[in-house]
Model the fold of this input.
Amino acid sequence: GAGVSQSPSNKVTEKGKDVELRCDPISGHTALYWYRQSLGQGLEFLIYFQGNSAPDKSGLPSDRFSAERTGGSVSTLTIQRTQQEDSAVYLCASSPDRYSSYEQYFGPGTRLTVT
Amino acid sequence: AQSVTQLDSQVPVFEEAPVELRCNYSSSVSVYLFWYVQYPNQGLQLLLKYLSGSTLVKGINGFEAEFNKSQTSFHLRKPSVHISDTAEYFCAVILLTGNQFYFGTGTSLTVIP
Done:
């Protein structure tokens, strides 16, 4: 079956530009997570969506970062006025239900390079 | 504050030898524990998880891990590794009362023929 997909797979942008990263979770999954993976670092939690509840934005590093999830499915992570330190792999994961299995299904990631 | 520590960033091991990848966590509340694996050029996938019950958890591909609450550890083991086990391994925890998964920095396992 279809897994979690992310687009684009690679994105190169100039410092100061805005970027949008897209995540298509597995159909029917109510939970969706965004992470950032920098070189030599673990996964850094960014934001969590669960159904129609208000998202947990506690991991967003600055107000330049925002995310939305439309119709409980597709999610977009937006980074405004990108900085070089934003360069990383951005991972999206979905889960059937946060309270049942805790198993996350990860997408392949979007590699963002800010020049 | 919660944190996950994977002390070994790189672990080389000969094929068919045993391996242990170490994971320690710090938390003032109860947690659930996970190991994820990332094969070269692939996304992360769940290897095994501990939610409750037996502290010895078995996962895919012959891996197992043991939850030790007193030592706040969740070390991953395999009695005999294969070349195909070469990958990055991540330990993760989530608080029973929270939404965030906390990941370690990963251990790169290289199996030498």
Observations:
- The longest strand of chain B covers residues 87-95.
- Chain B is about 0% helix and 55% strand.
- Chain B touches chain A at residues 4, 6, 32, 34, 36, 42-46, 49, 51, 90, 92, 94, 99-106 (CB under 8 Å).
